[in-house]
Write a structure and sequence with these properties.
Phosphoenolpyruvate Carboxykinase, domain 3, 9-stranded mixed beta sheet, binds guanosine-5'-triphosphate, binds sulfopyruvate, binds manganese (II) ion
């Protein structure tokens, strides 16, 4: 069976689907049309096979549950490759494979991998269908879970094929779960062929190929050539009492607060000023210079794939409201009553439940060594439509996106980085992005808590040489007349007892308020060696009492620590190879000089 005849007469597309089917040998091929009927059929079929579990439809209408393989719970950076003809084009930031060798090896893993299964053909648009900002991809997959997620995360179905017409301009995305063998797992990108191959995984970023693979790795490569930016950034609008909305874009590494900031609720003390927050995106921004000399951004996605643990009515009420319907929950606790739960969620865990591994579980359950067993996998997630978010912006579907007033970089730093500071210039702002670092979280494999450099939060996502990417950012600054100001934030600084100094979440609006003041040429600041720092009285603290001395600690810049930091940044820049742009090096030298002078 193949319903392709009814869907598209694009010969190039049809031939490619046939060719990939000849490799993977599915029993049948089904094209995804985007209809509710087809989605309902797929849900029913996946429930029959146990691929997903229907949740309590009275409490959670349209919601389903999925468990991944226990060894398949996050992106796999060591199995992710950029396959360019020349190794230096991938850069030291990427694992590299020769394209021919990569295709050949993976073809062995794909050969016959869909035997007895269905191959689904998902036509999807990243960005509003038909917008000049948007890109089309076609994902072939043997996973209904992937299809159902892609239907939430992207605009998928027949209308995308109508826009594609007979064109060759689409990203070829091939995915097979195969047998989920971690050793034979490969996430391969061929930017020179506009192609992605992913095999032996069934988890999020590895397999929802429109997300990190297309919208960041492939898109960043295209953006460099076409003169725009594909970034790991949230986009949010801040509406002021006078009705004016300013939009900011912010890059934080995985699991460092993008989803939370994107849908923050103004804290009590600031509410009376009449602020409203509008969510445009929580993970990815495509940014283009426009004729007005400003940068404009769209969110290419139309859903959230958000971290579940820690999401509750206090930390992120908008997220809690978003996931009440039409949501897929992955690797959380499953109650016998068909509800879900996760660590630091709302209320008590269901008394009778199973953990993410399917074992009987109750809160406080301990292992042999007396250690508490978490019920939800730390990187467990929800997939939910952005339109269900109470703060969803009415501009999400706009073909032209929103104008960006400020760009913010940030990371998870227990020490060193102050709550917020402002760059001295665009190039200095590029330096702030280039020198970003953060403590590792559950979204990555590897030792958690360890500080690693993660420039622009793009280390795992830049589809080409990072040094060339820095240069591209420098050039973008020259290309726009009214470039946004660039800031750095750190919500995660701790005191000597290891407690967070800043309450974070909704309170972060106080910092954003200062950021916007600075963009208008207002806001109190002093010049420090690392950039403009707010004065301790610069924030509106109505309704928030910080312990005495906290603000000083939050804004402290320790010269010796920063000198060490500069040395560590230098080592990192050296590791990126000979293409490091002189402008970024220059910013590092200037920082060292300023630190020296300040003593
Ligand atoms: P990805 O989806 O992996 O790209 O992550 P993300 O950047 O969207 O991270 P998310 O907003 O899901 O936050 C991840 C974790 O950071 C959660 O455990 C949050 O509770 C925590 N977090 C978010 N914002 C803050 C904050 O302002 N302060 C503190 N202390 N923790 C925060
Ligand atoms: C991230 O890790 O930055 C995510 C989750 O947003 S995933 O889609 O799995 O990459
Ligand atoms: Mn992310």
């Amino acid at each position: 069976m193949n319903n392709g005849d009814m869907m598209s007469n694009n010969r190039i597309l049809r031939n490619w689907v046939e060719e990939m089917a000849a490799l993977c040998l599915p029993e049948k091929i089904v094209w995804i049309d985007g209809s509710d009927e087809q989605r309902d059929q797929l849900r029913a079929e996946a429930c029959r096979t146990g691929e997903i579990i229907e949740l309590n439809q009275e409490i959670l209408p349209g919601c389903y549950y999925h468990r991944t393989d226990p060894l398949d719970v996050a992106r796999v950076e060591d199995k992710t490759f950029i396959c360019t003809r020349r190794e230096q084009d991938a850069g030291t930031n990427n694992n590299w494979k020769n394209p021919e060798e990569a295709y050949m090896e993976a073809a062995n893993f794909f050969r016959g991998s869909m035997r007895g299964r269905t191959m689904y053909v998902i036509p999807f648009s990243m960005g509003p269908v038909g917008s000049p900002f948007s890109k089309i991809g076609i994902e072939l997959t043997d996973s209904i879970y992937v299809v159902l997620n892609m239907l939430i995360m992207t605009r998928a179905g027949r209308e995308v094929l109508d826009v594609l017409g007979s064109s060759n301009d689409f990203t070829r995305c091939l995915h097979s779960k195969a047998d989920l063998d971690p050793e034979r797992r490969r996430i391969l990108h061929f930017p020179e062929d506009n192609t992605i191959w992913s095999v032996n995984s069934g988890y999020g970023g590895n397999v929802l190929l429109g997300k990190k693979c297309l919208s960041l790795r492939i898109a960043s490569y295209l953006a460099k050539q076409e003169g725009w930016l594909a970034e790991h950034m949230l986009i949010l609008g801040i509406e002021e009492p006078n009705g004016k909305i300013d939009y900011v874009a912010a890059a934080f590494p995985s699991a460092c607060g993008k989803t939370n900031l994107a849908m923050l609720i103004p804290p009590e003390g600031l509410k009376s000023k009449g602020y409203r927050i509008w969510t445009v995106g929580d993970d990815i921004a495509w940014i283009r210079p426009d004729t007005d000399g400003r940068l404009w951004a769209i969110n290419p996605e139309q859903g959230f794939f958000g971290v579940a643990p820690g999401t509750n009515l206090k930390s992120n009420p908008n997220a809690v409201k978003t996931v009440q319907a039409n949501t897929i929950f992955t690797n959380v606790v499953l109650g016998k009553d068909g509800t879900v739960w996760w660590e630091e969620g709302d209320g008590d865990a269901p008394a009778d439940s199973e953990d993410w591994l399917g074992r009987p579980w109750h809160p406080g359950k301990k292992d042999d060594k007396g250690k508490e067993i978490p019920g939800a996998q730390p990187n467990s997630r929800f997939t939910a439509p952005i339109q269900q978010c109470p703060s969803a912006s009415h501009r999400i579907g706009h073909h032209h996106g929103v104008p960006i007033s400020a760009i913010i970089f940030g990371g998870r730093r227990e020490r060193l980085a102050p709550l917020v500071y402002e760059s001295l210039s665009w190039n200095h702002g590029v330096y702030l992005g280039a020198s970003m670092a953060s403590e590792r979280t559950a979204a990555q494999y590897g030792k958690q808590g360890e500080v690693r450099r993660d420039p622009f939060a793009m280390l795992p996502f830049c589809g080409y040489n990072m040094a060339d990417y820095f240069k591209h950012w420098i050039q973008m600054g020259r290309a726009v007349k009214n470039a946004p100001k660039i800031f750095h934030v750190n919500w995660f600084r701790k005191d000597d007892e290891g407690k967070f100094l800043w309450p974070g979440f909704g309170e972060n609006l106080r910092v954003l308020e200062w950021v916007l003041q600075r963009c208008r040429g207002e806001g109190k600041a002093i010049e420090s060696p690392i950039g403009y720092l707010p004065t301790p009285d610069a924030f509106d603290m109505t309704g928030l009492d910080l312990p005495k001395g906290s603000m000083d600690q939050l804004l402290d810049v320790n010269n010796n620590d920063w000198k060490d930091e500069a040395m560590s940044v230098e080592t990192f820049f050296d590791s990126l190879g000979p293409r490091m742009p002189w402008e970024v090096r220059n910013e590092l030298e200037a920082l060292k000089r300023r630190l020296e002078q300040a003593k």
